[in-house]
Design brief:
With 299 residues, the protein is α+β, with helices and mostly antiparallel strands. It is 44% helix and 18% strand. It has helices at 9-18, 57-68, 78-87, 118-123, 134-147, 157-166, 171-189, 204-210, 227-230, 232-256, 266-279, and strands spanning 3-6, 23-24, 31-37, 40-45, 49-54, 91-97, 106-113, 150-155, 195-199, 221-224. Strands 1-5-4-3-2 form a five-stranded antiparallel β-sheet. A five-stranded mixed β-sheet has the order 8-7-6-9-10. Helix 5 packs across helix 10 (232-256). The longest helix is centred in the last third of the chain and has 25 residues, at 232-256. The protein is globular and about 75 Å long. The structure holds magnesium ion (MG).
């Protein structure tokens, strides 16, 4: 059947630009631009009329309506519906914490929320860990960990520094390795699930590229941005990861004798100065990610 839209010149230019890489040669003189995107073809006629046709054409139609701020004729937004359908499924989710913090290592967690646990988990007040205070995290994480299957992988600073300096791995590569490790462990614990969602930190093709030398790569994963807001399993994973990261920071704070600040901002720079005066650069290798720029002025 297909969808058609009357476009302005600006909208035509926008779409020609957006789908430039997918362009195919138009088959007649009435056509200004034609592109094949996965299973669909879009045709823009010289009259500025757009035609969208092909399998799953409603998804592309909806995307274009969203882009151009045109009200869609579809009753339900199919993209949203797809996501909504997923939300009520039994999913494994993974997320990481600590990658933006100078002090402390990295924690990646995986969690499985089955359909029948969804309402129970919701009642605990689970949402994205970034929206929760440390106090609330410390309160609900132990309850979640008693309620659902989960896995935590902690990469301490020594190991992180080894991977980033000796092995020259970049941050996303390290994240990919850890997520894959956690997912493999989750797949040992949970045999029946509808999908695996990673809170996206890179594109899917980069992710698998980082893992190309790994022996055991879980291929049935979806990387989705802002997944911690959309999927309870990812939200749980992010809460568990943050809980474990807070514990790690407490231990390291005890080691240095004062509370280590999170993040990589001013308070961190102040703490760095203090530690450097006492112990020099060597004082950082087991408490911080020494490749961070914060340390550059001392090298
Ligand atoms: Mg994340």
């Amino acid at each position: 059947m297909g969808y058609s839209l009357a476009l302005t010149q600006l909208q035509v230019d926008y779409l020609c630009n957006k789908f430039n890489d997918y362009q195919i040669t138009p088959f007649n003189n009435y056509t200004l631009f034609q592109a094949k995107i996965n299973t669909c073809t879009i045709t823009i006629y010289k009259t500025n009329t757009l035609l969208i046709q092909g399998k799953n054409e409603e998804l592309l139609y909806q995307e274009i309506c969203n882009d151009l701020n045109i009200e869609s004729k579809l009753k339900d937004n199919p993209i949203k519906q797809q996501i909504n359908n997923y939300i009520i499924q039994s999913l494994i989710g993974t997320d990481e914490v600590g990658t933006g913090d100078f002090f402390g290592g990295i924690v990646v967690a995986g969690a499985f929320v089955s359909k029948d646990k969804i309402s129970l988990i919701k009642k605990l007040g689970v949402k994205d860990s970034k929206a929760l205070t440390d106090y609330k995290i410390n309160q609900i994480a132990p309850v979640i960990m008693k309620t659902i299957p989960y896995t935590v992988f902690k990469l301490d600073c020594l190991k992180f520094n080894f991977l980033s300096i000796q092995k020259k791995y970049n941050m996303n590569q390290i994240k990919a390795l850890l997520h894959n490790t956690v997912i493999n462990a989750m797949k040992q614990k949970v045999k029946i699930y509808d999908g695996i969602i990673i809170d996206a930190f890179t594109t899917s093709s980069n992710y698998f590229n980082y893992l190309k030398n790994e022996r055991n790569v879980a291929r049935d994963v979806i990387l989705e941005e802002k997944a911690e807001n959309k999927y309870l399993s990812v939200a749980c994973a992010s809460i568990i990861a943050r809980y474990e990261f807070l514990k790690m920071m407490d231990e390291l704070s005890e080691l240095v004798g004062f509370e280590l600040p999170k993040g990589a901002g001013k308070p961190v720079d102040t703490a760095i100065k203090k530690i450097f005066m006492e112990k020099g650069l060597n004082g950082f290798k087991n408490i911080a990610k020494i490749k961070f720029k914060n340390l550059d002025i001392y090298r």
